[in-house]
Amino acid sequence: MKRHESIAVLSRDHQKGLMLAQLLKKDAPAYKGLSTDLIGKMNYAKETFENDLIQHFVDEEKILFPSVKGRYSTSDKLINELCEEHKYFTEKIPSLKSSNGLADELNVIGHKLEEHIRKEERVLFNIIQDLLNESELEDVKLKIEKSRENFTKSCKKN
Asked: Can you supply one Gene Ontology CC term for this chain's record (predicted)?
């Protein structure tokens, strides 16, 4: 299904997230311009989390998910799962440290992140596009744009 423009920005975020997921896996090929050593991968994960994933999670949890919450029991259950997964990434990625188990930890995060993104793209986003009318989708788009604008402004202040 073609992604509606209102949530296309989130799908573009997912492309970045999938790149991170692939990089973190044990069998990851070398990607031009990205680290191949464990510490570099860990630092890249933390940087990507800080610069991209936090805002992405906020946009989903504060804007996208509430737009369909309570309309369809399947999407409500899925949203609850996705929020738990956001919590997992929010706890795990910033707390990564160099250790003997780092390769395994990065691998698990990489696989979970890929699964999470695929679930949002293949299931939830299709449900959202079916449930919301054009006006509601436009409202989601405007709220996400405003959220991103505010995030960018707050980053420039720091």
From this structure: plasma membrane
